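hey m, so remember when u said the tokens were messed up on ur end? i reran from scratch. heres the input so u can diff it against urs
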Amino acid sequence: MINRIVLVGRLTRDPEVKSTATPDRNVCNFTIAVDNRTKKGEEKTTSFIPCVAFTPTAELVGQYLKKGSLAGVEGRLTQRNFTRQDGSKGTTYEVVCDNVQFLEPKGASVDDVKFDDIPSQESEVTNLDTLDLPDDDLPF
């Protein structure tokens, strides 16, 4: 079985880093907002995915990311059962992060993104007929 998840989104709040009972082991909780694909004309929807990272990733996320930061998350989906204060049982799903990529320069914010610098999809396509690749490097 394969349990692998890759997400790219923005943090919805500042990450929370906490110490665990195990010495020198920290845990970081954060949530990322991921836009869902939609068909043309449909209203955009967003999923809010809870994530958890452990030392040393936890310390790096807590130090360098903040609310609004763009991040790539790679990990596995887990299910946790818990008991609420009123005694009822609950279930939550979260991504246990193996790797977190910081996708913006240090100190950048959403306001710093210049959409004029992003090339359009209608830009000129270079001629790919002249690629010089050996036949054994082709994927087909």
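this time it looks ok to me. The two ends are 26 Å apart (CA to CA). if urs says something different then somethings off w ur setup not the seq
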